[in-house]
Amino acid sequence: MAPATPSPIGPEPIAASAPSAARLARGVIRALNDLGQASLTEFTLRSGRRVDVIGLDPGGQLTIVEIKSSLEDFRADRKWRGYLDYCDRFFFAVAEGFPQEVLPQDCGLMIADGYGAAVLREAPLLPLAPARRRAQILRFAQTAAQRLNQVGDPGLTAALSRTSARRTSARRTSAR
Fold it and tell me: How, if at all, do strands 108-113 and 116-121 pair?
């Protein structure tokens, strides 16, 4: 049997044996949709870090959701604080039974499964600067459009990878 080709628009339908982080991501995406937000998974920030889920609401507010599938996953993660500079609201999403007391109280909290998520603690609103918001929304739109185009033209994936590599190289060169 040939290996499955990853979907360019996000996670494939989740099987019962799939990693729990993928199931939680699906539930978070459904919850954000219910809240009127469009969302993307595995979204790369300008910093080069990749967030689990990012949502964009009709008013232009950005929500980042960091999924923690285990206590070990949370303890090993030192990068999530860097995500706060790229969103208006930040949540952790965990499965029922996760020891919630270890999660920072100044972040939002969702309990998720493969079918949805419930907000247990609302994330504080920390508005982005207008220039950062504009840059994030443009990056969101470009990423969404590129993923959608890949669905219609799977051969486009290689061309987009080359373009992305050129942009990354140019950015590194100009930063020196």
Answer: antiparallel
pLDDT of 91-100, one tens digit each? 999 999 999 9
10 Å CB burial of residue 133 (0-12, 13-18, 19+) is middle
Domain-located, residue 70: yes
DSSP 8-state assignment for residue 123: P
Q: HSE of 62 in the Cβ direction (CA atoms, 13 Å)?
A: 26
Residues in the chain, how many? 176
Q: What is the pLDDT of residues 37-46, one digit of tens each?
A: 999 999 999 9
Q: Is the pTM of this model over 0.70?
A: yes
Any residues with CB less than 8 A from the CB of 161 and at least 6 apart, and which?
none
55 strand-pairing partners:
39, 63
As a whole number of angstroms, the distance between CA 90 and CA 109 comes to 9
Owning domain of residue 101: 20-129
CATH code of residue 67: 3.40.1350
Which residues have CB under 8 Å from 9's CB, separation 6+?
A: 147, 148, 150, 151
